[in-house]
Amino acid sequence: MHPAALPIDELLDACDVATTRRGGPGGQHRNKVETAVVIRHRPTGVVGEASERRSQAENRRMAVRRLRLALAVAVREPPAAARSSAWSARSRAGRLAVASDHDDYPTILAEALDELAARGWRLADAARQLGITTSQLVGLFRRSPAAWQAVNAARRQAGLPQLD
Question: Running DSSP on this structure, what letter comes out for residue 163?
């Protein structure tokens, strides 16, 4: 299973979680309390962090989300033989319905990137294998600036044209 798709308990078991103080807006409370959260995935070194909220719990949730997104973009796994339950729940008749702020987005993004990498970064081949249209696949990547940059960098390296 891709690390971005792991249940929260399993994901955090493979991570170092640190809290710290950060400067910026929020006043005196922010400067006295360790509300910033930094989560590092030990096996990959990928980091997710958040410090914009005054609540450590809110920053922790945001840091986990950012870690999942970073893992989805940075870690490539061989594609699974069957689509994940998250993918199956969000894909119908060649259409993929998932917002970039939905909890399933990092899992679906990782699954699509894994398939695209396995298909030599050829969009049409990956989309066909995933059971969606090429434009749906492009739209999925476009919602994440980091994924968009990673796909274009990989396509350049493979001698394929960048996406617009």
Answer: P
